[in-house]
Amino acid sequence: MSSRDTDWDGVRLHVVTGKGGTGKTTVAAALALALAAGGRKVLLVEVEGRQGIAQVFDLPPLPYEERKIAVAPGGGDVFALAIDPEEAMLDYLDMFYGLKRMGKTLTKMGVVDFATTIAPGMRDVLVTGKTSEAVRRKTKAGRRVYDAVVMDAPPTGRIARFLNVTQEVAGLARVGPVKAHADMVRSVMGSPETAVHFVTLLEEMPVQETLDGMAELRSVKLPVGGIFVNMVRSTDPALIGEVDHAELALGLKAAGLTDGKDATAIAEALAREVAEHASRTGLERRELEELVKTGARRYELPFLADGADLAGLYELAEAIRSQGAA
């Protein structure tokens, strides 16, 4: 297995969150590929039941089991797990009470679903607990089964509540297996081996949610990681000046691009597009300045003209590695 210095040496659990529509799942998948590169073994975990990982890797829906889904650049394997809360409940009953068979009966009766519905915090404990177990798991020889675990986590708006499991189950149990389970999860989630990364676009609402989410995590003493700025266009607004409509119209005619149409009208339309692009790029720069103020490490991921297909995932993984995040 190869090794290299990265910004997150020592971190074994990478939690990825972001406002809906920012490409959170895509970035989590690319980060898993980047972390696995060079011969490492990484587990990519999905917790929301959307089968987003399967869609990103163009696979059939994933079952509730860890299975290999991709080979990383330079060797290395990415495994995936789509966590189902009911199945996680059965694991929990088996682990603490030896009641997996009874749990299946309870599931048929709807008791498990009822329990996690009236106690939503318990659902989060089960899901984060399964992830934490994967982080801590070792082989018989005492080595970690996975070099890193990446969690495609819930959106920024509820990430602190989702991860702050000790507080969430405080009203459910003060002693016993449930409390012990929650404390184990908290010991992983709040440790230096965990980092919660934010995915954002250079737009006002995603950036503000990122800033709010980082502040909320710090208020509950959970580890803030880096910021992945997705879909970055490379245009510098300083390079876009005023457009001379007449000169542009002459250029269109000289190049034979007007096809007999009104060159002046086409030039004006193009000039408007250039001005709108310059304005948008200026807004993006101001949003980037807000992110710079956080002091968090930032990684800029390119806009993929052909979309986030499998080839695009590997392109993003390379961008992540080249900037030192993995």
In short:
The protein has 326 residues and is α/β, with parallel strands linked by helices.
Low-confidence stretches: none
Strand arrangement in the largest pleated sheet:
3-4-2-5-1-6-7-8
Radius of gyration: 24 Å
Q: Sheet bearing the most strands, described?
A: 8 strands, mixed
Helix content: 40-55%
* Overall spatial form: elongated
What CATH calls the topology is: Rossmann fold
Give the integer mean of the pLDDT values: 85
- Estimate what percentage of residues fall within beta strands: 15-25%
Helices and strands, in order, run as EHEHEEHHHHEHHHEHEHHEH
Find the CATH superfamily: P-loop containing nucleotide triphosphate hydrolases
Structural class by sheet pairing and helices: alpha/beta
CATH architecture: 3-Layer(aba) Sandwich
Which CATH first-tier class would you pick?
A: Alpha Beta
Number of helices in the DSSP assignment: 13
Describe the structure.
This protein is of the alpha/beta class and 326 residues long. It has one domain (13-235, 288-322): Rossmann fold. 48% of the residues lie in helices and 15% in strands. It contains 13 helices and eight strands. The chain has an eight-stranded mixed beta sheet, with helices on both faces. Strand 3 and strand 4 (77-82) form a beta hairpin. It is elongated. The mean pLDDT is 85.
